Amino acid sequence: MPTRRFISTSKSRNIAGSVDIITIGGPYSNKASFFSNLNRTHNHVERKNMDWNSYFALRGTRRLYEYAFMVPSTVLGLLGGGYYFTRQDFDPTMLIFGVDQVLVYGIGTIASALLGLSLGAVVGNVIFRSVHSNARPLLDKMDREFFKRIALNRANPTGNLLTRPIPDFYGEKIKSVHDYRSWLRKQREYHRKTLYYI
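^ Presequence translocated-associated motor subunit PAM17, sequence as received from the core. Prediction below:
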């Protein structure tokens, strides 16, 4: 008899409060990782909600896409900028905007690498969104909810000191629900230290 799978919704407490969580039922669902079911879950276009563990997994996948394109684009930008500026006529007696030519060419090469880095992140994000087009509306919704909660729960930035900055101000290091709870504890601790100077 073939195994029957089903989709069920349940109310659960999480960082978004009360959010419907979609679970995939099956005899090995507790052992299966999210990535093994990623393609199958994306086929359910009618899904209205996404659980936070799935969101953080997709967020990590998006970051991998960005890194995968950032590395080659940065190298290409560096090599392209270096090639362009080394082909220019060099006269040590001439200045560019009152600055030595070597310094200007060096800055231009570094700027080309940084431009390649930025373009790689953009291209990686675009490709990720096209590959996971079914999950894109839910991911955008969860992004808005996540950053709203980051802005709501982070420590007061007016007490931010250069010697003691707010830990992970934008929540970039949060990769799971456990990381989010740890981030909340750090924000409360920072607020307490700033308020009572302890």
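The two ends are 65 Å apart (CA to CA).
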